[in-house]
Amino acid sequence: MENILNIKDLTKTYQSAGRTLTVLDDINFSVAAGSTNAIVGPSGSGKTTLLGLCAGLDRPTSGLVELNNINLGSLSEDQRAQVRNQYVGFIFQNFQLLPTLTALENVMVPLELRGEKNIRNRSLELLDKVGLSDRGHHYPAQLSGGEQQRVSLARAFSNAPQILFADEPTGNLDAETSEKVVKLIFDLNREAGTTLILVTHDLELAAKTQRILRIKGGRLVADQLVENA
Amino acid sequence: MDNNPINTRRRINLPWLFEMAWRDSRRNRSRLMLFISAIIFGIAALVAIYSFRYNLENDINAQAATLIGADLEISAGKLADASIKPLLDSLGDRRSQQRSFVSMIYFPKSKGTRLVQVRALQGGFPYYGSLETTPVQAGQNFKTGKMALVDKTLMLQFNARVNDSIKVGNVTFLIAGVLNKAPGQTGITSGIAPLVYIPLQYLEQTGLSKKGSRINFSYFYKYDRPINADKLVKGIGTRLDRAGMNYETIETRKEGTGRSFADLTRFLSLVGFIALLLGCVGVASAIHIYIREKIASIAIMRCLGVKASEAFLIYLIQIVGIGIIGSLTGAFLGTFIQHILPMVMKDFLPLTISTDISWLAIGQGVLLGIIISILFALLPLISIRNISPLNTLRISYEEINLIRDPLRWLVYSLIVLFVITFTYFQLGSWMGSLFFTIGISIAFLILAFTAWLLMKVMRLIIQSSWSYLWRQGFANLYRPNNQTIILIVSIGLSTAFICTLFFIQGILINQVNLSSGGSQSNMILFDIQTSQKKAVAELTRQQGLPVQQQVSIVTVRIEKINGKTAEQVKKDTASKISPHAFSNEYRVTFRDTLTPSEKILTGTWIGKAEPGKEIPVSVEEHFASRNHVKVGDHLVFNVQGVSVPAIIASTRQVNWNRIQTNFQVVFPTGVLEAAPQFHVLLTHVPSAQVSARFQRAIVRAFPNVSIVDLGLVLSVVNDLLDKISYIIRFMSAFSIITGIVVLIASVRISKYQRIQESVLLRTLGASRKQIFAITALEYLFLGTLSALTGIVIAATGSWLLAKYSFEIPFSINVLPAVILFFIIALLTVVIGLLNSRGVLNKPPLEILRTNV
User: Fold this and answer.
1) A128: domain CATH number?
2) How many domains does chain A have?
3) Nearest CA in chain B to A66
């Protein structure tokens, strides 16, 4: 299977109070297209930074991030925005819906950006898939946390991404809702054949993926395949 | 897999950007409207002034003929001589003559006297418009007998009625009618020198037209067929110039009137512009906070693939949208306000002003509003480009270093350039607009620096031993999301502006009071004939009044300056001498010593002319610079027809602020003693009663002698300053309202900023009283400091104006400043508390639900 993501010698440092802080140190791995992957590690280990770099939200200090054969480090911020719009879907811990847009409009935005047609019906279909077809005209503040995350899921899949990045997708949800959302993520992922990379503390959730990348102190300390995933 | 996957040429999808701007504004529209309301009053002020200006221009064009009353007016300070008389008699199909001069008149019924402008009229003037009188026919009939028209304010002042009589010189006239309006007359001119019309045929009998009297001779012409009066005067201009005569046509009067009102409306536009600038600072500050609140949304959009330029455009569209709404609202309000302006300015207007809707003014106002709201909003908007999508994963608290952003400096430069250019179009002078911009910038900087200093000082001085309420109240001044800078700048600038007006008015009035106070001369008697000189002085002493100064005055003209006549100067394009130097009449004196108000600057004072030598004269410094002459230059004076060559022996500095006779040119003794002359006497009257008694005695014994009572001048100056400051205050009210709107907007923004912590405090058990006290302390401190800084700026500005512009002593009228201080401080606290009442009165959970 061809790789959709290649990470080579990836390092990220920050300047803080005159000191250089190394958040990620010489990370190397590749992700096969259509696979499901989890990045796990303790707080402050650099998982979210790694996710941000893989998704093209930030530039590495050194090393290579290649998404869909595109070297993200060589692109401008606007070009990376285009890459995200064309190939990437996001799910965030705190949902990150646009508060002034209705649920339906939130789902429509990525498609509108691509200038596609018939987006309303497609977005309604997606909302229907996540069980919110009757809540399309509601604003995020009028939805529960679980509902907001389901809208966020519909939005993430609306542009038929090749890769989906999820940052602690159940971090703000109760156990029951978490279960439903996780099921939806994996179902939709399977259905669309999307590559999944999720960052989590939750080892049980990580175990649902095919592969677990373990990070500690900014270094990749383990890379294991999960059996029966 | 796709190897060329990035569509880097994605076009900007404008309809989608508009849709996103609309969607994004959904929960913020009322707040956005509040932000933009800060520019509404500035735009309203400008549209009102522009509409007034355009209507005035149209009205001047339509009514110019009634301003002058004839097709052509020729005037001079002397009777036309034989060389020019045939020309004057050949002009026009209908002719009128008028002689005007100032003189005392006497109301026998009330025994009152007053210095007025007498116009002795013959002929059908005015040919355009009319002498508006009550009864109407009196305007024409008074010329048929010994009758007069008397200004309505005079009639009221002396409780006179039609058919009463007035005495002008030696002749008693029947009051035929009340003069309501004469061509070109304004409320102000009638207040300073009220008019009395008498028929010309009785002027001789009054005894007021003797040689040496200062009379202006006017000739009015009306053509029955349409003529080009300007073409006509071009042909005869040289002859009229040579005869020392001035001329005016409908066109020149139109230009003159238009010019003076252009100056007034330009000044008022600047006052309106200050209100607009103030509003824009408020808008910039509000948008800055708005964008900070939008960081999360912008980061999400960036994450989903929105380009930096697209995110920037989404918010720019919002700003343009509310800019248009704000500007249109301002223009609508301005169009309404322009109906009030003619009422505010009625005393200054020589004609009836229409209040038509001026689409040009509305267009200019709306365009200006949009440009300026974009310019000022750009400052916070350009930071959108730097908002990283990474904010979706973790909100960055690191401030982006905007100081290094070249675009930010470009926007600053554009704002400064715009202010200078706009001011230039108002003032017509680059230097003036540069000074205005620098002045405004300095005031802004002082206030911003004060706010910054306050925050620094507060951080240092707050002690942990203070009570919690005091610590929290004062800490609010420097904690994140504080409104200290914007509130101090906006409140301080409004205070400085209004306070400067009070200070300057006080300084000018004090100066007039000082000039007439103590034992200084406060009454001037002029037009005293040589034969009356001794008797007038005698009568003054008989009344128990001192004769403080007696001066002889001779009227002269300049014939040549350094050998060049008026015609030669006109032909010589390189000459810096103004032709007016030759057409002006100069009233000069002769004496052998300097007065205490004079100081020799260059050359030597020579008090006595030596026979056979050139006559050594002393000229005042401004006279010398205006006419480009210096010590050693030669002048030839025409003294009542006789050429008198003179040399400039010295230049003098003259203190014109002292109430005494001062002169531009002083001759030595031994030259002008025999020339036709009149005399001036200065005295001091201790009270209004003594003044009235003395004036009555003088008018009875010497009807030709005119009296200037400084007490009356003082009241006229007071009245005039009141009227001027009323207009300025009316316009500056827009700045104050803008200041209040900015205050409300800023306080409301801070409410949104502080709502979380206020709710948290309430949840933790803080009482309403405690939150009330914390809020009150914060705004009390902001209000008092802003008002105080504003007053200090006003005092400094007034001191600079007094010292360098008016050249008079500086004094402060403390009372208005103190009152203003308390009003501003109180207003700030009240608005602050009113806006926080939502947090105070509602349960915490309700607020959290509605605002989060």
Assistant:
1) 3.40.50.300
2) 1
3) B3
